[in-house]
Design brief:
heterodimer; A: 350 residues; mainly alpha; two-stranded antiparallel ribbon; 2% strand; globular; B: 303 residues; 12 helices
Chain lengths: 350, 303
């Protein structure tokens, strides 16, 4: 009998391209237990998850619509994680952007769209930066753990939104806890007529491209990656670690803020309490699946958009609860994380 | 006035109960070197499993037991990710929370379907040991889980600071290499801490569905897990200070509830946000001399 030995050496490069595919396969095998429990055929369910959404115009466009906020939050998270700054606050920064977009969107009535939209976009980015500023400064000045502070800031801003929507911004027309509608001049133009797809999707891919350039072709990107790999080593190499982390944290906040602008100006046109069903947290999944690589993050966001649209399809067609989508996403994250570790090992004949 | 104050204190204890269970569970994990951000999801799972089992078996105790078991399993899953595989604790914990929340929602919808009125059960009764005394009677009109939570604090302190188990636990969180060299299994201790900790977190969730509400709603935990994470840092990883922090938080929460019902025109959201902001402030002040377990967030590998 030939014995097998596991040694701690990186697996051969060619195996790495299989990791996403294998992770998806493992995820679907694991979650098929739940599909069977719901009394449905797993293969039919996978068809509805992966193929059905792409087979119709409306649902295929919906995949892109659903991926839009995830591209923003995924890139935001990846940007910060690259520099070793664990920004868990993309959710809060998104909401800050949404508040700014709603406020500016209501105030910009009568302006030309060519002015209103850019003002709103910049305002939303500024709001994201502002919400990211506190934890980032505490991190670099007093080395306060950013995971906890950014997480807490997510909850704080929920109260701010509740305060706005139950008070000054409560819609006098409907009486619902939602803000009045933003000015039509501030609506994001549609990319495709008679669909929900808006220019936010395009903007998201511009951000993907810009992030790729910054990370791979600029000195800042190099500094960020070196800080992410090891703060002490970066310090010795002459990198201003604190300034790099601060920059990464604030840019991350700005990008997350864009997600909020895009949801308010492109989809809802009001600020509502449920403006984000956890896009900031899903952004962490997207960033991890994409391996923190901007293009990978964009593709991962498209894939999660497909899963979210697919979950609706599975639910409608097979009566499986829609929350299967959330389970699939979370399992995919955990499986991918595990496989990233396993790629550091290889099996050898002893 | 005196009556109001006692009522407020009683409400404080009630609000603080899930936080005490949650923080004690989290503290156990963190003392062993694992930051378990799966707490939010574990509390949610505990609330769901507790309710569902109690509903279908007509036994609150069976529900509570099932919740505890589900919490142990959640903790062991966190152990698989962070102890055995040595994955990033932040991302694993958040992933665990997303997973447990998703699977609870999925199962709840599958079992109970879509209903306009959520199904409900009769909750645990309140115990009144000092029924006929004036002040104590009102103050100690609580669910038994609240009494259990209060008792848990000194027991926990004794366990962590006065037993050899506690010594090993703390050592695993401070210097796992030394513990390993002394012949104690780091893996076993960490799994043990995560499993027990998960059970306590789930008990906090089960308190919400089996005692406080008598039903399971989607916003049942509502960030209490994150509050626990913050309280521990706020209290510098010390069980007695964590207890005081939970009472403080519970007090502010109970106060804003009271203010809301009196119809006072105060932005109650400010009161709700206040404890979070105070925690961030406390982190800032405690920042430099925080005494987090030295091996927190560091996976242990035998090379």
């Amino acid at each position: 009998m030939t014995g097998l030995r596991i040694e701690r050496r990186p697996a051969p490069l060619w195996t790495r391209s299989f990791i996403p595919v294998l992770a998806v396969a493992i995820t679907f095998s694991l979650t098929s237990v739940l599909i069977l429990w719901a009394g449905a055929n797993p293969f039919e369910a996978y068809f509805h998850f992966l193929v059905a959404p792409l087979s119709g115009r409306v649902s295929a466009l919906e995949v892109l619509v659903k991926s839009t906020p995830l591209i923003f939050t995924g890139i935001a998270v990846a940007f910060a994680f690259t520099a070793g700054y664990w920004n868990i606050g993309a959710e809060g920064q998104l909401l800050a952007g949404a508040i700014a977009a709603a406020g500016l969107g209501m105030a910009l009535d009568g302006l030309s769209p060519y002015l209103a939209v850019p003002i709103m976009v910049l305002g939303g980015m500024a709001a994201g930066v502002l919400w990211a500023l506190g934890p980032a400064l505490l991190k670099v000045r007093l080395s306060v753990d950013e995971v906890v502070t950014t997480l807490l800031m997510n909850t704080v801003i929920l109260f701010l939104i509740s305060f706005l929507l139950n008070g000054v911004w409560r819609d006098p027309v409907s009486g619902w806890p939602q803000s009045p509608q933003i000015a039509e001049a501030a609506f994001f133009p549609k990319l495709v007529m008679r669909s929900r797809l808006h220019i936010g999707f395009l903007l998201a891919w511009v951000v993907v491209g810009a992030t790729w350039i910054v990370l791979n072709r600029t000195a800042l990107g190099l500094r960020m990656r070196s800080v992410g790999l090891g703060k002490t080593a970066a310090q010795f190499a002459g990198v201003n670690v604190n300034r790099t982390i601060l920059t990464a944290a604030l840019v991350s906040g700005a990008i997350a803020g864009l997600a909020g602008v895009s949801e308010v100006a492109g989809i809802h046109f009001h600020l509502i309490e449920a403006i984000s069903p956890g896009y900031g947290y899903t952004g962490i999944i997207v960033a991890t699946l994409g391996g923190l690589n901007p293009l990978g993050v964009g593709l991962a966001a498209l894939f999660i958009g497909l899963i979210e649209t697919g979950a609706q399809s599975v639910s409608r067609a097979l009566g499986v609860p829609i929350y299967l989508g959330n389970v699939v996403e979370a399992v995919l994250l955990l499986v991918t994380l595990s496989m990233l570790v396993l790629q550091n090992y290889r099996i050898k004949r002893a | 006035m005196e009556f109001l104050l006692v009522g407020l204190l009683a409400a404080t204890l009630r609000v603080a109960t899930p936080l005490i269970f949650g923080t004690m569970g989290e503290l156990l994990s963190e003392r062993a070197g694992i930051l378990n951000l799966g707490i939010e999801g574990t509390m949610f799972l505990g609330a769901f499993v507790g309710f569902t089992v109690a509903f279908s078996s007509n036994s609150l105790w069976l529900g509570l037991l099932a919740a505890l078991i589900s919490g142990v399993l959640a903790g062991l899953l966190m152990g698989l990710l962070t102890v055995t595989l040595g994955l990033n604790q932040h991302v694993s914990g958040l992933g665990l929370t997303l997973f447990l929340t998703g699977i609870s929602l999925f199962a709840y919808r599958l079992i109970f379907g879509e209903r306009s009125v959520p199904p409900s059960i009769d909750t645990f009764p309140k115990l009144t040991p000092f029924e006929n005394l004036p002040v104590l009677g009102t103050l100690f009109e609580q669910y038994f889980l609240t009494y259990l939570a209060i008792l848990l604090v000194p027991v926990f302190w004794w366990l962590v600071y006065r037993t050899s188990f506690g010594l090993q636990l703390r050592a695993v969180g401070e210097n796992p290499e030394a513990v390993d060299a002394a012949g104690v299994s780091v893996f076993r201790m960490r799994y043990l801490a995560l499993g027990l900790g998960g059970a306590l977190m789930a008990a906090g969730g089960a308190f919400l569905s089996l005692a406080q509400l008598g039903s399971f709603i989607f916003g049942i935990v509502a960030g209490r897990g994150w509050v626990c994470i913050a309280l521990i840092i706020f209290a510098n990883w010390h069980p007695l200070k964590v207890f005081l922090g939970a009472l403080l938080f519970g007090g502010v929460f109970a106060l804003q509830l009271r203010l809301q019902t009196t119809g006072m025109q105060l932005p109650y959201e400010l009161f709700l946000a206040l404890p979070y902001l105070v925690t961030i402030l406390a982190l800032t002040i405690a920042g430099r001399n925080a005494s987090a377990p030295a091996a927190l967030l560091k996976p242990y590998r035998r090379e």
